[in-house]
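1st attempt posting a full record on here, be nice pls
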Amino acid sequence: MGVTKEQLESSLKAKLNPSHLEVTDTSGGCGASFVVEIVSEQFEGKRLLERHRMVNAALEEEMKQIHALSIKKTVTPEQWKQQQESNQSNAAA
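the predicted structure (as C-alpha cells):
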C-alpha cells in the first residue's frame, strides 16, 4: 500500500504548520500521486523554489513511495488572503 492523504497531511502539518492545507490523491486511491496546496508563515521571504524544496523536505520519507507530487500553491498567509480577495472580486464582477 502506498502513502495515504492523511499521512501527507500529518507530515506537512507537523513540519510546516500551515494555516491552510489541501492534499488531493490523484492516483485513484493507490497513494502514488498527489496534489498539494499549502499556506504557511514559514514561506515568508522564500522564493518559489525554496518553498517547494521545503515541502519536499517535509515529505522526505513519503517521497520514497510517491510517484508524482504536484505542488499547486505554496504561499504565505498574506498572499493567500490577497488571492482569496481577488477571487471574490472576480466572482462578483
